[in-house]
Design brief:
The complex is a heterodimer of chains A (116) and B (114). Chain A is mostly beta strands and 116 residues long. In chain A, 0% of the residues lie in helices and 53% in strands. In chain A, strands 2, 5, 6, 10, 13 and 14 form a 6-stranded mixed beta sheet that branches. Chain A has a 4-stranded antiparallel beta sheet with strand order 3-9-8-7, with no helix packed on it. A two-stranded antiparallel sheet of chain A has the order 1-4. Chain A starts with a strand and ends with a strand. Chain B contains no helices and 11 strands. In chain B, the strands form 2 sheets. In chain B, strands 2, 4, 5, 6, 9, 10 and 11 form a 7-stranded mixed beta sheet that branches. A 4-stranded antiparallel beta sheet of chain B has the order 1-3-8-7, with no helix packed on it. The N and C termini of chain B lie far apart (37 Å). Chain B is mainly β and 114 residues long. The chains are: A mainly beta (116), B mainly beta (114). At the A-B interface, strand 6, strand 12 and strand 13 of A face strand 5, strand 9 and strand 10 of B.
């Protein structure tokens, strides 16, 4: 079955500290992996994506993520957080599966709070 | 580029009435559009996928007669919630995809049914 697991529902970090948000997936084919950010009452903004190639991908706003096939993981990292990145973060997986191109499956999200 | 808009951003309607939500790709032609539903503090659940000029494909458990989707052009898809009830209150998000490209998401529409 296709699924995405974000084990941390809520994370609080101090401003300036590093951040890692976890994402594990189950997918029956070559996965395309995404991280999105959603601010309150807003739609989704793409932070970064992995299709193929280098397993360490760089995204916007200083985020990066590493694809580890052996662990079925795609964790999001940021070396130093600013209060402005407090939001909800969603990991998603998609690809060509069952003929449905780019159908995305989302994790349940991680709500990030940043304390001064 | 790749901007997707939704209208309205917030709508309140009475139980039993119908409401239409528009999703537009402003600067590109979208071969495929997707409609998602998001409950408070939960993830996005795909409701249906629509390709321009053809019938939408609904996910299991989504009532196609209740959630009518029309993708009449390469820049516009509409979702009509028919005979809305309070349990239909939710945040509805659309996305649009160019051929062989990623999905671009709209800002969402909050529906409240009283």
């Amino acid at each position: 079955a296709q699924s995405v697991t974000q084990p941390d529902i809520h994370i609080t970090v101090s401003e300036g500290a590093s951040l890692e948000l976890r994402c594990n997936y189950s997918y029956g084919a070559t996965p395309y992996l995404f991280w999105y950010v959603q601010s309150p009452g807003q739609g989704l903004q793409l932070l970064l994506k992995y299709f193929s190639g280098d397993t360490l991908v760089q995204g916007i706003k200083g985020f990066e993520a590493e694809f580890k096939r052996s662990q079925s993981s795609f964790n999001l990292r940021k070396p130093s957080v600013h209060w402005s990145v407090a939001a909800e973060y969603f990991c998603a997986v998609g690809g060509l599966y069952g003929g449905a191109t780019n159908k995305l499956i989302f994790g349940t999200g991680t709500l990030l709070a940043v304390q001064p | 580029g790749a901007v997707v808009s939704q209208h309205p951003s917030w709508v309140i309607c009475k139980s039993g009435t119908s409401v239409k939500i528009e999703c537009r790709s402003l600067d590109f032609q979208a071969t495929t559009m997707f409609w998602y539903r998001q409950f408070p503090k939960q993830s996005l659940m795909l409701m249906a996928t629509s390709n321009e000029g053809s019938k939408a494909t609904y996910e299991q458990g989504v009532e196609k007669d209740k959630f009518l989707i029309n993708h009449a052009s390469l820049t516009l898809s509409t979702l009509t919630v028919t005979s809305a009830h309070p349990e239909d209150s939710s945040f509805y998000i659309c996305s649009a995809r160019r051929l062989a490209d990623e999905q671009y998401f709209g800002p969402g529409t909050r529906l409240t049914v009283t």
